[in-house]
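### Sample
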Amino acid sequence: MASSGLLSLRTVKQLGKELLTSKLHINNVPALLSHFSKAVQSETSHSTSSSTSSSDESLLEALFFLRSFFLHRISSGELCLHSLEHVQQVASNKVHEDDRQPEAVYHAWLWGKYNEFVDLLLHTVTSPATSSSTRAASIDALMEFVRQEKPGGFSDRIYNRLCSTLVTSVHFTREMIEHLVANYFEYIDVCSHTCISLKKSIISAQGQKDQGEDKYKGDDSTREGANSQLLMSNIYDVLICINIPKTIGKSSENPVVETWVKLKDDGYQKKRNQGDVENANEKIKKLKSKITRVWLTFLQLPLTTMLYEKVLGHMHKAIIPNLTNPLVLSDFLTNSYNQGGLISVMALSGLFLLITEHGLEYPDYYNKLYALLEPSLFIAKYRSRFFELLDLSLKSPLLPSYLAAAFAKKLGRLSLKSPPAGALIVIAIVHNLLRRHPSINCLVHQNNSNAEFLLSNPLENGPKQEAEAMCNGNESPEMGNQEGLGKDPFIFSESNPANCNALKSSLWEIETLRRHYSPVVSRFVASLEEDLTVRAKTMELDIKDFSGGSYATIFAEEVKRRMKQVPLAFYKAMPMTLFSEHSDAPLQGFADFPGWSFHGKQSDDDSQHAKTGEHKSAHFVNEPSEHPKPDMSDESPREGKKKLIHVKASCNGNNKKQKTDPATLKGRRKRK
């Protein structure tokens, strides 16, 4: 025995082997249960102790021995549900004392130890101090009891407790769900009973909300302190992982799905080989019905903003494909779409799926989509998905020209306030719109847009005669003073795309992007110079290539570009001298420095500073020199440079012996 009351690993193994070998050592069960309970409590109180690994190993050994013992008792019939009913009657004193045979007492004791072990496993699953391997082993043991406790059926008694323990636990972790999904959610009966259990928990949460309670009544280890928000978040984490299991088998006419309780049943395997099993389509249909009911019940809860965004973000991938009739979510999605802001952006995915694949009619879809176009979209978290859906929504060639023009014009206006990555998205979408809808190509270059606006509004914007003259090409000298001229007829603040006058305007915003400060944007505008009406020579741009852009991605791409010519200096020609001689500047030789002012003569202040050794940075001051400077005014620059070098050499070599030129020495030798 250890000092903390725990059994050593060697003792645990010895007790476990004796328990599995002979029924005479059945009293080892209380000893192993006591060690298991103390080991869990020891890890909880000493989670940072160095002996945690050894206690965890002994805990796992005790768990495996007890699991094997109780599974053997279940398979032998000693722990059958019929005996449990008799034990409950004995416990409630409904059975006469004479009927309490030793066998009944033994069964009551055995059921008590079995329930105690199940309680310890449930506590271990949600204990924050236990290791991940211990929690996974506890879940596996409970799932084995679920399969074996009820012969040929699924034991709801244990599985409902497991699901309730998980969703009401404060220490609920993602790895618990990942273990269930990886090992058990591929079986259709596990998914079905999970939906039933989660629905009960949701109904319980609704009753708790109505009563104004914040805590569940039950086990203190898991349910105490779990409020309604935590419960809803945990339920969502489990519910979002329930998907329709894949069918197995090569036969498409009689597909089958695997179930957990009959996975190792030989009789079931024989029936499956013969094809005499329930059609998988019927099972999948029933599972979809349960998933639909539990989701509708869950969406009636008062969801938090964070949870609301999670539901909308996974609606098109993990929720709608698993429902019997996805149109039951039409009210929920349309209400979310009408809220505006980020909620509307996130609801667009699910609503778009209902419209395109499930026949939902929503006449106000494009008006709401047009109203969502705001500058904040270019920095939103889900901007990538939104712009992809926006491009898909405008893909149909049956859209009216005024609608396509309105979206192109508003996106162009937003590009002036967007970051460079947003401007790239706008250019790509406008490119696709011009290619899909040739009727709006007039927006590329429209000279008489202002004149047409004047013709349609002669009373508000100027005389009709001057507008007609402008349409005919005759400009009036007084046209520049009219109020309507030079003004874009597009109404940016108009929420209805039919009334924004987009077709009377032009895409001058895209031309403005040609002078964008980012070279990536200005280069990309050139893609609109092609004749997009010729569909055979052009192709649509994939918005996915631009929707995920940012400053970082643009900088990374710009750094990778290979430059053929890199400007290293501002000179137009290779300079041969330091300063140019021919210049009209006040001081000769400083024409290459525009914007600088230099003074050739010393002022009185400069002379005073020169005497004291101080110089001004903006002036050239003549410093006194020990040696006179040579006069090079009549010399060429190259000769003057040679003389200057010779003078410097002579000045620096006064104390050194001057070297004689070799040619001079040779001449002296010949004379001799």
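DSSP finds 30 helices and no strands in the chain. This sample (CCAAT-binding factor domain-containing protein) is used throughout the tutorial notebook.
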